[in-house]
Amino acid sequence: MESLDIILIAARGEDSTHQLKTNYSNIDQLSADMVAFSNSYGGKILVGIQEVKDQAALIVGLNDQEVKNLNQMISSSASQGVVPAVNPKTSVVDVNGKLVLVIEIPEGINKPYQDKNGVFWVKNGSDKRKATGREELQRLFQNAGLVHADEVPVNGSGISDLDLDYFSRFYKKRFGRSLEDEPISIDKILENMNLSRNNQLNLAAILLFSTNPDFRVPAFILKARSYLTDTASENSYLDSQDIRGKLTDVLHRSVNFILMNIHHIQAGQSVNSLGQSEIPRIVLEELIANALMHRDYFISAPIRVFIFSNRVEIIIKLTN
After folding, report:
1. Rounded to 5 degrees, what are φ and ψ at 281?
2. Which of 183-187, 268-272, 279-283 has the lowest mean pLDDT?
3. 147 has a pLDDT exceeding 80
4. CB neighbours of 125 closer than 8 A, spacing ≥ 6?
5. Would the CA dihedral through 22, 28, 33, 38 be positive or negative?
6. Fold topology of 3-143
7. How confident is the model at residue 144 (pLDDT cuts 50, 70, 90)?
């Protein structure tokens, strides 16, 4: 990093990849900053720059002893204060006779990271914050490939939640054999298919094969509403439905609801024909299927479908 780069960053102020510090006196604070950058997209900490409210930051610089002390603190923090350990790169830049220590922290390859006190930190714009919510922590582990939402056990669930007739038909179609002819128990079959563990069904099993999925996971339904106009208004409200059931049922019922509430056009057919929907069924099936399969199941919120006079909106919540 060149001195001009530092001058420009000081003038612009902090952002999600650049942090400005006058100095560090607390190794725990340094570790928290390193954890936050490692859990996010990496970044640089510029030490020797003082932020001034409503003004460009001041380059105050460090003396040689402060640089030496900081390098020792960085080494200790990276190896002992961050878990797992990280490997930051440091450099000293002379900016008009003032020394600025640049700590470059790459995006971590062993996420998630935590400090020695077990706290997970993430970047939040130019600042950082603790990742405390259960779903947010789950996403950190999911991004690291350590946990997958569909494999998370559903508390209180068991074999009694399964629609056994439906599962039997699926099993026969998929494997060409009847459940009754298998030499192992249904519990073992589910475990072998990665649908349960310790007799407890996971989210995939509940959503795909449960008799009543929303009893166990009530947030994972689809809420559909149609309006007479091109804006959402209670005065123009036409129809609504909370669509529940197995994922396949939700898919078909959702598509049918949309088809019932969008315009149909003649498209060259006779006047006695039913007409063709403005949006082909195959397109709607693809859109709803993508929403159901690729949504983040660590976020407990329904998918929402809004049908207006001129468009259809499919909304998936991305954050809590």
Report:
1. -55, -40
2. 268-272
3. no
4. 15, 16
5. positive
6. 3.30.950
7. low
